[in-house]
Design brief:
Two copies of one chain form a homodimer. Chain A has 550 residues and is of the alpha+beta class. Among the domains of chain A are: 107 residues, Nucleic acid-binding proteins (OB fold (Dihydrolipoamide Acetyltransferase, E2P)); 85 residues, no CATH class. Chain A has 13 helices and 19 strands. In chain A, the strands form five sheets. Chain A has an eight-stranded mixed β-sheet, sandwiched between helices. In chain A, a hairpin with a 6-residue loop joins β7 and β8. In chain A, α6 packs across α8. At the A-B interface, α5, α6, β6, β7 and α7 of A face α5, α6, β6, β7 and α7 of B. Chains A, B: InterPro entries: Aa-tRNA-synt_II, aa-tRNA-synth_II, aa-tRNA-synth_II/BPL/LPL, Asp-tRNA-ligase_1_N, Asp/Asn-tRNA-synth_IIb, GAD-like_sf, NA-bd_OB-fold, NA-bd_OB_tRNA. Chains A, B: GO terms for molecular function: aspartate-tRNA ligase activity; ATP binding; nucleic acid binding. Chains A, B: Keywords: Aminoacyl-tRNA synthetase, ATP-binding, Ligase, Nucleotide-binding, Protein biosynthesis.
Amino acid sequence: MLFQSSHASCGLTVYETSRGGCVGRLQASFRYLILQVEWQPVHRAASQLRVVEFKAKEPNHTCGELCWSHVDEEVTLCGWVQYLRQDLFVILRDFSGLVQILIPQDESKSELKNAFLGLTVESVIMVKGRVRRRPEGQENKKMSTGEIEVCAESMEVLNTCRKLPFEIKEFVKKSEVLRMQYRYLDLRSPRMQYNLRLRSQMVMKMREFLCNLHGFVDVETPTLFKRTPGGAKEFVVPTGDPGKFYSLPQSPQQFKQLLMVAGIDRYFQLARCYRDEGSKPDRQPEFTQVDIEISFVDQAGVMSLIEGLIHYSWPEDKGQMNVPFPSMTYEEAMRDYGVDKPDTRFGMKLVDVITAFQGTQIEFIKDALLKPGGCIQAICVPEGTVRTESVSVAPVRADGSLKSPLSRLLSDTRPLLGKLRLQCAELLECYGVPVRDPSVFHFLWVVDFPLFLPKEDDPEMLESAHHPFTAPVPEDAHLLYTQPHKVRGQHYDLVLNGCEIGGGSIRIHNASQQLYILDTILKEDPSLLSHLLEALDSGAPPHGGIALGE
Amino acid sequence: MLFQSSHASCGLTVYETSRGGCVGRLQASFRYLILQVEWQPVHRAASQLRVVEFKAKEPNHTCGELCWSHVDEEVTLCGWVQYLRQDLFVILRDFSGLVQILIPQDESKSELKNAFLGLTVESVIMVKGRVRRRPEGQENKKMSTGEIEVCAESMEVLNTCRKLPFEIKEFVKKSEVLRMQYRYLDLRSPRMQYNLRLRSQMVMKMREFLCNLHGFVDVETPTLFKRTPGGAKEFVVPTGDPGKFYSLPQSPQQFKQLLMVAGIDRYFQLARCYRDEGSKPDRQPEFTQVDIEISFVDQAGVMSLIEGLIHYSWPEDKGQMNVPFPSMTYEEAMRDYGVDKPDTRFGMKLVDVITAFQGTQIEFIKDALLKPGGCIQAICVPEGTVRTESVSVAPVRADGSLKSPLSRLLSDTRPLLGKLRLQCAELLECYGVPVRDPSVFHFLWVVDFPLFLPKEDDPEMLESAHHPFTAPVPEDAHLLYTQPHKVRGQHYDLVLNGCEIGGGSIRIHNASQQLYILDTILKEDPSLLSHLLEALDSGAPPHGGIALGE
């Protein structure tokens, strides 16, 4: 948050924060883009954009764009005083970068010199001057404008700056609290400038792809809405009418389905969503998702669209990106990685070592194998990293023998081994063993989720694995009436480097099937969704969609 | 609202509704675009957009795009049954338009024929068939696909439709309540489809102009925020912490100013805003504005940018639009039109007829003239419409003589005459006299507003004419300390055909000037805005902006 607030200390919603900060899921994906690549100067991307200028009084150039081709030109620059050097130079900064201003040393210009020397850092000034090549040997190769400097001819202080609580420098480590309190100072750093500008550009490319190339219609849906049954806890907004409240929606799910019924065959929106669940590292009370819904489409169609969308909007400086993305069933993901959002940048898959224990005398293993479906799972740390045994992070050896701490975990082996696998990777990396290449982006589809799961507090009952609007896989539909727990849903998750960055489904468009699922299977009160059931009965087309950053 | 709700019966926020419905100010401008021009078929604009296709199972064509060049082609179409005709034809509709499907009459295809004849209107079907030229003499020139028809070879019912509460036809007048309750049916009408798609395209052009051509950064700002002093009543959102509430912001005003302090020199956002003031024809509890802020800019720069923006995003089918827009001072607007948002599509200006009454014996006029600043104003209905005297709508004759009902209104003549002027225009139009050309768009800047106005309930005190962050006109700044009521603000309103569709200002960037205005002039508690004052003191650049649809 730009201001102090116990609940919403999360900054302008889109801003990347340091690790452990509050970053929504869409942000999580952007964080990947941003944190794991080499630093790129801001000005390259940004200054290219200034194609057409509107009439602004000042300035006529940006700091970062100046180079040898501007030599001898008279320029007007506006920016912030980064620092003074040797009473000779002011380093001036704007969004595009830094430039060196030469303070006149001439006696006749002592007034101007004194004005420069009296500047506090981060004050805002306007400088007029002439660009010149720096004297030989004084070039700065590390600075994009390091070949030139601007000989100041006049200077106006537009605003003076007080003593700040921290310096605007990349290498000054600031506490998270201080960064949040003085968000407007934190955002002046090149890194934060880059992140904000990259997000804006990437979102723009997505809009071009959807709106201009594929005829999607950008529709804004209301955020003052009524309560949605089930799902996350919702924020309420009291109305002037006592006892009546709006709800802030968790997603535009119902609206977008109704837009399909309304004949808006291709809908998208960058939708603000709300969940009253407090802040976690990857959850914020408000967040934004790229929300998409399409009529007359199947699962392959949605997946293909999203691959095209990401490919099109992918930042050039992040390297090659390949489509289509690989795909994996939920069953395979759980079997091989112990999780439904596997990080496929590295191996160390879960393996079944049951054959190694045929006829074992180890009691707890014998017991486990006697149970129905009993098995023995292990993580295989491959040859290349076996040397890490010396740092004791591999509780399961490549040969399959088990270390004792695992004995307590046998009951729910896979998810636990899945977590262990990730912790192994982290530990190995802490000790300098490369496991995950930070510059690669492994996208992955996970499909064929179960449509229902046993309720946690009442395993006899079923609840929706995602939400009650997901359509069954057609060949499983007949099982709805006999063995609903065996039905797979037409649901797909998009996973990036072990983070779920999107999810969607083909929806139910048949009112009686929707009613059966709500009423008979989920035992929910269908009257709460009567408006949706009525809409499905009013000529609803088959439809499906996805939300990125959900 | 898509669903019934007493408070939020306003539909998806962007939707144009019929007169008297709930339309926000941004919408008001779109409504102008939409209501006052001839109806354009949807498919032209929309079908051009389908440049690149992603892999979707079905269909391979849209209804509205078919023409003679598709003759003999095998096509798959998905859409809604518009109606059946003579047991021979089904008229199929999708977003792009209508096409005629020929039901096979062959005995061997009686099953298919019966399936067609059993269809209810608005059911969703998939048809495969071959395009053929209609037999000679059977072409329909009124239909864009009227040269061809599709001979059905197979048909699948994707969803059947119940009996609907109203028909999806332009000419069926529906009540506002029914349209709101069944929004998904209302939106199927060509007019609503066109409106939604036009808005999406126009907004996309605006984004291109700002983001791609001018290097603006699209930044999302939080909507869960703290209370802003002054202004409209805000919605509150209770937190989990008893007694603590978020506020839903009326606008991102503070955020965008802080972004300027943060060095985001060109910011824009399509921002959702909230006002807890109930629904009026031109006010909704939530609405969207095009929010813009720029560093190192002056009033002329902002105005020029907006002219460029509107020119660039102007729909082709709305005719020529000229920039720059004319400009008028607040004083001129009040003097000539009696209002600060004059409809300049027609004359009938307020004129001073004081000379005609020199030496008059009419008592109340004599009295009025004796008062300080006393004057006589009249509306001049020009020659061309003087014939409307016969329908008694011109209370003031062109020769300047006054009708008696005006005598009671002399105390606050201009705003009242301003309203009268508009009512005259409406009345004249009711009687068929053309006054305002419904196809023209008169944009107008109104500038040089007073910075402060006397408070309504305490005229000794001053309040901000717009908001307390507006900077004074530089040459008036010294009057702040002596005659603040005489200070003009660097505020500008954009007016279209008598509607205020935008407003903005150059902001105060000097902390001590901001403090003086809050504390000494407005007598507000400056501690409520201490974060902003602190930010202005931390190297705030000069900046200004605007909001369209405010």
